[in-house]
Design brief:
Elements (H helix, E strand, L loop, with lengths): L11 E5 L7 E4 L7 H20 L3 H12 L19 H8 L4 H11 L9 H13 L11 H13 L17 H13 L6 H20 L9 H26 L5 H23 L2 H5 L1 E4 L5 E5 H33 L3 H5 L3 H23 L4 E5 L5 H4 L6 E5 L3
Antiparallel strand pairs: 1-2, 3-4, 5-6
Length: 397
Protein backbone atom coordinates (compact mmCIF):
# COMPACT_ATOMS: atom_id res chain seq x y z
CA UNK A 1 0.00 0.00 0.00
CA UNK A 2 2.70 2.45 -0.86
CA UNK A 3 2.13 5.73 -2.50
CA UNK A 4 -0.46 7.16 -0.12
CA UNK A 5 0.15 10.86 0.13
CA UNK A 6 -1.02 13.27 2.79
CA UNK A 7 -4.43 12.69 4.31
CA UNK A 8 -6.98 15.35 5.15
CA UNK A 9 -9.77 14.63 7.54
CA UNK A 10 -13.20 14.84 5.92
CA UNK A 11 -16.27 15.35 8.04
CA UNK A 12 -18.28 12.25 8.61
CA UNK A 13 -21.89 11.56 9.04
CA UNK A 14 -21.99 9.22 11.96
CA UNK A 15 -22.95 5.65 12.17
CA UNK A 16 -26.67 5.48 11.73
CA UNK A 17 -28.93 2.71 12.81
CA UNK A 18 -31.42 1.66 15.41
CA UNK A 19 -30.26 0.94 18.91
CA UNK A 20 -26.72 -0.27 19.05
CA UNK A 21 -25.21 1.53 16.18
CA UNK A 22 -25.47 2.56 12.70
CA UNK A 23 -25.09 0.79 9.54
CA UNK A 24 -23.92 3.70 7.46
CA UNK A 25 -20.83 5.89 7.27
CA UNK A 26 -21.26 8.97 5.14
CA UNK A 27 -18.99 11.85 4.30
CA UNK A 28 -20.31 15.37 4.50
CA UNK A 29 -20.98 16.73 1.06
CA UNK A 30 -22.42 13.61 -0.53
CA UNK A 31 -21.82 13.90 -4.27
CA UNK A 32 -24.59 14.80 -6.63
CA UNK A 33 -25.10 16.85 -9.73
CA UNK A 34 -26.29 19.90 -7.83
CA UNK A 35 -24.86 21.90 -4.96
CA UNK A 36 -28.25 21.77 -3.23
CA UNK A 37 -27.97 18.05 -2.73
CA UNK A 38 -24.57 18.47 -1.10
CA UNK A 39 -25.82 21.31 1.10
CA UNK A 40 -28.78 19.32 2.39
CA UNK A 41 -26.60 16.27 3.03
CA UNK A 42 -24.14 18.34 5.03
CA UNK A 43 -26.90 20.00 7.02
CA UNK A 44 -28.38 16.63 7.97
CA UNK A 45 -24.98 15.20 8.94
CA UNK A 46 -23.62 18.21 10.85
CA UNK A 47 -24.71 17.23 14.35
CA UNK A 48 -23.75 13.59 13.95
CA UNK A 49 -20.41 14.65 12.47
CA UNK A 50 -19.53 16.74 15.54
CA UNK A 51 -20.67 13.99 17.93
CA UNK A 52 -18.54 11.37 16.18
CA UNK A 53 -15.38 13.42 15.98
CA UNK A 54 -15.64 14.54 19.59
CA UNK A 55 -14.45 11.03 20.39
CA UNK A 56 -11.33 11.58 18.28
CA UNK A 57 -10.26 14.65 20.26
CA UNK A 58 -10.83 18.41 20.50
CA UNK A 59 -8.84 19.21 17.36
CA UNK A 60 -10.92 16.89 15.22
CA UNK A 61 -14.14 18.25 16.72
CA UNK A 62 -13.07 21.82 16.04
CA UNK A 63 -12.19 20.91 12.46
CA UNK A 64 -15.62 19.33 12.02
CA UNK A 65 -17.32 22.42 13.44
CA UNK A 66 -15.45 24.66 11.00
CA UNK A 67 -16.48 22.45 8.08
CA UNK A 68 -20.09 22.28 9.32
CA UNK A 69 -20.33 26.09 9.39
CA UNK A 70 -19.53 26.14 5.67
CA UNK A 71 -21.99 23.35 4.81
CA UNK A 72 -24.30 25.57 2.74
CA UNK A 73 -21.56 27.07 0.62
CA UNK A 74 -21.65 26.29 -3.08
CA UNK A 75 -18.63 24.30 -4.17
CA UNK A 76 -16.69 23.65 -7.32
CA UNK A 77 -15.21 20.58 -5.72
CA UNK A 78 -14.70 18.99 -2.33
CA UNK A 79 -12.68 21.56 -0.41
CA UNK A 80 -11.46 21.48 3.13
CA UNK A 81 -9.89 23.93 5.54
CA UNK A 82 -7.32 26.09 3.90
CA UNK A 83 -8.53 25.19 0.42
CA UNK A 84 -7.38 21.56 0.65
CA UNK A 85 -9.39 18.70 -0.69
CA UNK A 86 -12.04 17.12 1.49
CA UNK A 87 -11.38 13.78 -0.12
CA UNK A 88 -12.81 10.43 0.85
CA UNK A 89 -9.87 8.38 2.19
CA UNK A 90 -10.54 5.47 -0.17
CA UNK A 91 -10.51 7.80 -3.18
CA UNK A 92 -7.28 9.41 -2.00
CA UNK A 93 -5.67 6.00 -1.59
CA UNK A 94 -6.58 4.76 -5.09
CA UNK A 95 -5.50 8.05 -6.70
CA UNK A 96 -2.14 8.03 -4.91
CA UNK A 97 -1.50 4.37 -5.68
CA UNK A 98 -0.07 4.07 -9.20
CA UNK A 99 -0.13 0.31 -9.15
CA UNK A 100 0.65 -2.23 -11.82
CA UNK A 101 -1.68 -5.14 -12.54
CA UNK A 102 0.33 -7.44 -10.25
CA UNK A 103 0.21 -4.92 -7.41
CA UNK A 104 -3.53 -4.46 -7.84
CA UNK A 105 -3.98 -8.23 -7.87
CA UNK A 106 -2.07 -8.62 -4.59
CA UNK A 107 -4.06 -5.74 -3.13
CA UNK A 108 -7.36 -7.36 -4.05
CA UNK A 109 -6.35 -10.71 -2.57
CA UNK A 110 -6.21 -8.88 0.77
CA UNK A 111 -9.45 -6.97 0.26
CA UNK A 112 -11.31 -10.16 -0.71
CA UNK A 113 -10.46 -11.78 2.61
CA UNK A 114 -13.73 -13.34 3.89
CA UNK A 115 -13.10 -11.87 7.35
CA UNK A 116 -14.03 -8.48 5.85
CA UNK A 117 -17.61 -9.75 5.75
CA UNK A 118 -17.85 -10.16 9.51
CA UNK A 119 -15.92 -7.13 10.73
CA UNK A 120 -18.07 -5.08 13.11
CA UNK A 121 -19.27 -1.55 12.47
CA UNK A 122 -17.39 -0.37 15.56
CA UNK A 123 -14.09 -1.70 14.19
CA UNK A 124 -14.73 -0.04 10.82
CA UNK A 125 -15.48 3.23 12.60
CA UNK A 126 -12.24 3.03 14.57
CA UNK A 127 -10.28 2.22 11.42
CA UNK A 128 -11.74 5.21 9.61
CA UNK A 129 -11.00 7.49 12.54
CA UNK A 130 -7.42 6.24 12.56
CA UNK A 131 -6.99 7.02 8.85
CA UNK A 132 -8.57 10.44 9.28
CA UNK A 133 -6.82 11.60 12.45
CA UNK A 134 -3.57 9.63 12.83
CA UNK A 135 -0.57 11.38 11.33
CA UNK A 136 1.15 8.05 10.68
CA UNK A 137 -1.41 7.29 7.98
CA UNK A 138 -0.27 10.33 6.01
CA UNK A 139 3.42 9.46 5.76
CA UNK A 140 3.16 6.01 4.18
CA UNK A 141 3.98 4.36 7.47
CA UNK A 142 2.42 1.02 6.58
CA UNK A 143 4.85 -0.77 8.85
CA UNK A 144 2.32 -0.08 11.56
CA UNK A 145 -0.05 -3.09 11.50
CA UNK A 146 -2.90 -0.95 12.85
CA UNK A 147 -2.75 1.36 9.83
CA UNK A 148 -2.42 -1.52 7.40
CA UNK A 149 -5.46 -3.24 8.91
CA UNK A 150 -7.37 0.07 8.91
CA UNK A 151 -6.82 0.47 5.17
CA UNK A 152 -7.91 -3.10 4.57
CA UNK A 153 -11.17 -2.57 6.45
CA UNK A 154 -11.90 0.80 4.89
CA UNK A 155 -11.21 -0.21 1.28
CA UNK A 156 -13.18 -3.44 1.54
CA UNK A 157 -16.30 -2.16 3.33
CA UNK A 158 -16.86 1.51 2.46
CA UNK A 159 -18.08 2.85 -0.90
CA UNK A 160 -15.63 5.42 -2.33
CA UNK A 161 -18.35 7.74 -3.72
CA UNK A 162 -20.88 7.89 -0.90
CA UNK A 163 -18.64 6.94 2.05
CA UNK A 164 -21.43 4.60 3.14
CA UNK A 165 -20.97 1.07 4.38
CA UNK A 166 -21.50 -1.48 1.61
CA UNK A 167 -24.15 -4.02 2.72
CA UNK A 168 -22.44 -7.26 3.77
CA UNK A 169 -23.93 -9.49 1.02
CA UNK A 170 -22.71 -7.10 -1.68
CA UNK A 171 -19.18 -6.39 -0.53
CA UNK A 172 -16.51 -7.53 -3.00
CA UNK A 173 -15.50 -10.36 -0.66
CA UNK A 174 -19.04 -11.78 -0.87
CA UNK A 175 -19.05 -12.21 -4.64
CA UNK A 176 -17.25 -15.57 -4.67
CA UNK A 177 -19.25 -17.42 -1.97
CA UNK A 178 -22.55 -16.19 -3.42
CA UNK A 179 -22.02 -16.64 -7.15
CA UNK A 180 -19.79 -19.73 -7.40
CA UNK A 181 -22.56 -22.16 -6.33
CA UNK A 182 -25.04 -20.35 -8.61
CA UNK A 183 -22.75 -20.70 -11.63
CA UNK A 184 -22.19 -24.36 -10.77
CA UNK A 185 -25.91 -25.14 -10.74
CA UNK A 186 -26.54 -22.99 -13.82
CA UNK A 187 -23.99 -24.95 -15.83
CA UNK A 188 -25.25 -28.44 -14.92
CA UNK A 189 -26.70 -30.55 -17.69
CA UNK A 190 -30.42 -30.91 -17.10
CA UNK A 191 -33.30 -32.78 -18.65
CA UNK A 192 -36.01 -30.27 -17.78
CA UNK A 193 -36.19 -26.49 -17.83
CA UNK A 194 -37.72 -26.22 -14.35
CA UNK A 195 -34.55 -27.32 -12.59
CA UNK A 196 -32.51 -24.34 -13.85
CA UNK A 197 -35.09 -21.58 -13.37
CA UNK A 198 -34.24 -20.97 -9.71
CA UNK A 199 -30.42 -20.93 -10.19
CA UNK A 200 -30.74 -18.54 -13.15
CA UNK A 201 -33.07 -16.12 -11.34
CA UNK A 202 -30.94 -16.26 -8.18
CA UNK A 203 -27.72 -15.59 -10.08
CA UNK A 204 -29.01 -12.61 -12.07
CA UNK A 205 -30.85 -11.16 -9.07
CA UNK A 206 -27.68 -11.19 -7.02
CA UNK A 207 -25.36 -9.91 -9.76
CA UNK A 208 -27.79 -7.12 -10.65
CA UNK A 209 -27.94 -5.96 -7.03
CA UNK A 210 -24.14 -6.27 -6.74
CA UNK A 211 -23.64 -4.11 -9.84
CA UNK A 212 -26.04 -1.45 -8.54
CA UNK A 213 -24.49 -1.29 -5.07
CA UNK A 214 -20.88 -1.24 -6.30
CA UNK A 215 -21.38 1.03 -9.29
CA UNK A 216 -20.55 4.72 -9.41
CA UNK A 217 -22.73 6.64 -6.95
CA UNK A 218 -21.56 10.19 -7.62
CA UNK A 219 -24.55 11.19 -9.76
CA UNK A 220 -28.13 11.89 -8.68
CA UNK A 221 -30.17 8.69 -8.68
CA UNK A 222 -33.48 8.03 -6.98
CA UNK A 223 -34.34 4.79 -5.22
CA UNK A 224 -37.35 4.09 -7.42
CA UNK A 225 -35.16 4.39 -10.52
CA UNK A 226 -32.77 1.75 -9.20
CA UNK A 227 -35.65 -0.54 -8.25
CA UNK A 228 -37.43 -0.25 -11.59
CA UNK A 229 -34.23 -0.58 -13.58
CA UNK A 230 -33.01 -3.50 -11.49
CA UNK A 231 -36.32 -5.36 -11.77
CA UNK A 232 -36.33 -5.02 -15.54
CA UNK A 233 -32.72 -6.14 -15.84
CA UNK A 234 -33.31 -9.18 -13.61
CA UNK A 235 -36.35 -10.25 -15.65
CA UNK A 236 -34.66 -9.84 -19.03
CA UNK A 237 -31.36 -11.41 -17.91
CA UNK A 238 -33.15 -14.44 -16.45
CA UNK A 239 -35.23 -14.89 -19.60
CA UNK A 240 -32.24 -14.79 -21.95
CA UNK A 241 -30.28 -16.97 -19.52
CA UNK A 242 -32.92 -19.69 -19.93
CA UNK A 243 -32.91 -19.41 -23.71
CA UNK A 244 -29.88 -21.70 -24.31
CA UNK A 245 -31.52 -24.33 -22.12
CA UNK A 246 -34.50 -24.36 -24.47
CA UNK A 247 -32.13 -24.87 -27.38
CA UNK A 248 -30.30 -27.66 -25.54
CA UNK A 249 -33.48 -29.73 -25.38
CA UNK A 250 -33.67 -29.64 -29.17
CA UNK A 251 -30.00 -29.91 -30.13
CA UNK A 252 -28.11 -33.12 -30.81
CA UNK A 253 -24.67 -31.58 -31.15
CA UNK A 254 -22.77 -32.22 -27.89
CA UNK A 255 -20.32 -29.35 -28.45
CA UNK A 256 -23.09 -26.80 -28.93
CA UNK A 257 -24.93 -28.12 -25.88
CA UNK A 258 -21.87 -27.39 -23.75
CA UNK A 259 -20.88 -24.12 -25.42
CA UNK A 260 -24.23 -22.31 -25.57
CA UNK A 261 -24.73 -21.83 -21.79
CA UNK A 262 -21.18 -20.48 -21.44
CA UNK A 263 -21.57 -18.05 -24.35
CA UNK A 264 -24.92 -16.77 -23.10
CA UNK A 265 -23.72 -16.47 -19.49
CA UNK A 266 -20.71 -14.42 -20.57
CA UNK A 267 -22.63 -12.04 -22.82
CA UNK A 268 -25.61 -11.60 -20.50
CA UNK A 269 -23.31 -10.83 -17.55
CA UNK A 270 -21.66 -8.04 -19.57
CA UNK A 271 -25.00 -6.68 -20.82
CA UNK A 272 -26.30 -6.81 -17.24
CA UNK A 273 -23.61 -4.33 -16.17
CA UNK A 274 -24.30 -2.06 -19.13
CA UNK A 275 -28.06 -2.09 -18.51
CA UNK A 276 -28.09 -1.69 -14.77
CA UNK A 277 -25.56 1.16 -14.87
CA UNK A 278 -27.07 2.80 -17.96
CA UNK A 279 -27.72 6.06 -16.08
CA UNK A 280 -24.00 6.74 -15.71
CA UNK A 281 -23.38 7.45 -19.44
CA UNK A 282 -26.65 9.41 -19.58
CA UNK A 283 -26.23 11.70 -16.57
CA UNK A 284 -22.47 11.64 -16.26
CA UNK A 285 -20.25 10.83 -13.29
CA UNK A 286 -17.89 12.97 -11.26
CA UNK A 287 -14.42 13.63 -12.60
CA UNK A 288 -11.87 15.16 -10.25
CA UNK A 289 -8.29 16.32 -10.17
CA UNK A 290 -5.60 14.67 -8.07
CA UNK A 291 -6.52 16.86 -5.09
CA UNK A 292 -10.14 15.72 -5.16
CA UNK A 293 -11.67 18.91 -6.60
CA UNK A 294 -14.67 17.92 -8.70
CA UNK A 295 -14.40 19.42 -12.18
CA UNK A 296 -17.84 18.35 -13.38
CA UNK A 297 -19.96 15.43 -14.51
CA UNK A 298 -18.81 13.59 -17.61
CA UNK A 299 -20.90 11.27 -19.76
CA UNK A 300 -17.76 10.11 -21.54
CA UNK A 301 -16.19 9.04 -18.26
CA UNK A 302 -19.43 7.27 -17.34
CA UNK A 303 -19.40 5.39 -20.64
CA UNK A 304 -15.79 4.31 -20.13
CA UNK A 305 -16.45 3.22 -16.53
CA UNK A 306 -19.36 1.01 -17.58
CA UNK A 307 -17.51 -0.41 -20.59
CA UNK A 308 -14.42 -1.36 -18.56
CA UNK A 309 -16.48 -2.97 -15.81
CA UNK A 310 -18.50 -4.96 -18.36
CA UNK A 311 -15.24 -6.17 -19.93
CA UNK A 312 -14.00 -7.38 -16.55
CA UNK A 313 -17.25 -9.36 -16.07
CA UNK A 314 -16.66 -11.09 -19.41
CA UNK A 315 -13.27 -12.24 -18.16
CA UNK A 316 -14.65 -13.28 -14.77
CA UNK A 317 -17.74 -15.26 -15.71
CA UNK A 318 -16.55 -16.48 -19.10
CA UNK A 319 -13.42 -18.06 -17.65
CA UNK A 320 -15.19 -19.32 -14.52
CA UNK A 321 -17.75 -21.19 -16.65
CA UNK A 322 -15.43 -22.35 -19.43
CA UNK A 323 -12.51 -23.95 -17.57
CA UNK A 324 -14.63 -26.26 -15.33
CA UNK A 325 -16.43 -27.51 -18.44
CA UNK A 326 -13.13 -28.31 -20.15
CA UNK A 327 -11.76 -30.11 -17.10
CA UNK A 328 -15.02 -32.02 -16.67
CA UNK A 329 -14.88 -33.14 -20.29
CA UNK A 330 -11.59 -34.92 -19.63
CA UNK A 331 -12.51 -36.05 -16.13
CA UNK A 332 -15.45 -38.17 -17.35
CA UNK A 333 -13.01 -40.20 -19.44
CA UNK A 334 -10.94 -41.29 -16.46
CA UNK A 335 -11.13 -44.65 -14.72
CA UNK A 336 -11.90 -42.90 -11.43
CA UNK A 337 -15.11 -41.44 -12.87
CA UNK A 338 -16.22 -44.82 -14.19
CA UNK A 339 -15.86 -46.27 -10.71
CA UNK A 340 -17.39 -43.24 -8.96
CA UNK A 341 -19.88 -41.47 -11.28
CA UNK A 342 -21.13 -39.28 -8.44
CA UNK A 343 -17.69 -37.65 -8.19
CA UNK A 344 -18.38 -35.46 -11.24
CA UNK A 345 -20.51 -33.04 -9.21
CA UNK A 346 -17.87 -32.74 -6.50
CA UNK A 347 -15.09 -32.28 -9.04
CA UNK A 348 -16.98 -29.67 -11.03
CA UNK A 349 -18.02 -27.67 -7.95
CA UNK A 350 -14.46 -27.66 -6.59
CA UNK A 351 -13.12 -26.65 -9.99
CA UNK A 352 -15.66 -23.81 -10.27
CA UNK A 353 -14.78 -22.46 -6.82
CA UNK A 354 -11.04 -22.66 -7.44
CA UNK A 355 -11.17 -21.04 -10.88
CA UNK A 356 -13.52 -18.31 -9.74
CA UNK A 357 -11.44 -17.77 -6.60
CA UNK A 358 -8.55 -16.87 -8.90
CA UNK A 359 -10.57 -14.94 -11.47
CA UNK A 360 -12.35 -12.60 -9.03
CA UNK A 361 -9.14 -10.75 -8.02
CA UNK A 362 -7.87 -10.99 -11.61
CA UNK A 363 -11.01 -9.37 -13.04
CA UNK A 364 -11.07 -6.68 -10.35
CA UNK A 365 -7.40 -5.90 -11.10
CA UNK A 366 -7.63 -5.50 -14.88
CA UNK A 367 -8.61 -1.84 -14.50
CA UNK A 368 -7.80 0.49 -11.58
CA UNK A 369 -10.56 1.27 -9.11
CA UNK A 370 -10.00 4.99 -9.68
CA UNK A 371 -9.17 5.39 -13.37
CA UNK A 372 -7.34 8.18 -15.14
CA UNK A 373 -8.68 9.87 -18.25
CA UNK A 374 -7.07 12.50 -20.44
CA UNK A 375 -8.79 15.84 -20.11
CA UNK A 376 -8.78 16.16 -23.92
CA UNK A 377 -11.14 13.17 -24.09
CA UNK A 378 -13.76 14.85 -21.90
CA UNK A 379 -16.47 17.42 -22.59
CA UNK A 380 -15.40 20.95 -23.48
CA UNK A 381 -16.94 22.50 -20.38
CA UNK A 382 -14.77 20.25 -18.21
CA UNK A 383 -11.65 21.03 -20.27
CA UNK A 384 -12.27 24.73 -19.73
CA UNK A 385 -12.63 24.24 -15.96
CA UNK A 386 -9.10 22.91 -15.38
CA UNK A 387 -5.55 23.17 -16.65
CA UNK A 388 -4.72 19.58 -15.68
CA UNK A 389 -3.97 17.16 -18.50
CA UNK A 390 -5.53 14.17 -16.74
CA UNK A 391 -8.45 13.71 -14.37
CA UNK A 392 -9.79 10.85 -12.28
CA UNK A 393 -13.11 9.06 -11.83
CA UNK A 394 -14.42 6.11 -9.88
CA UNK A 395 -14.96 3.13 -12.17
CA UNK A 396 -16.82 0.97 -9.69
CA UNK A 397 -16.34 -2.73 -9.06
Amino acid sequence: MRGFARATAPAWKGLEGPGSGAATLAAAGAPGPGGGNRGRARARGGARCRLLLLRAGPAAAASAARRGSRGAEPEAGRRGPGGGALMEPNVRFWIAERQSFIQRFLQWTELLDPTNLVVSVEKIEKSRQLLLTNEDASIRDLEDPRIKEAWKRSLSTVHPDSSKLIPVPFRPAALLPFTAPMIFFSMLSVKSLKSVILPQISFYTYTTAFNIVNGNASYNRHLYESLLLGTGVIASSSFFGLFPRLLQLRLNNALLKRALPIIFLTHISAVNVVAVRSLEPIRGIEVMDKEGHVMGYSRKAGTKAVRDTASSRVVLYGTSAFIPEVFSHYFVRTQFFRQHPWSLWTFKLACTVLVMGLMVPVSFSIFPQIERIQCSELEKEIQSATEDTELFYHRGV
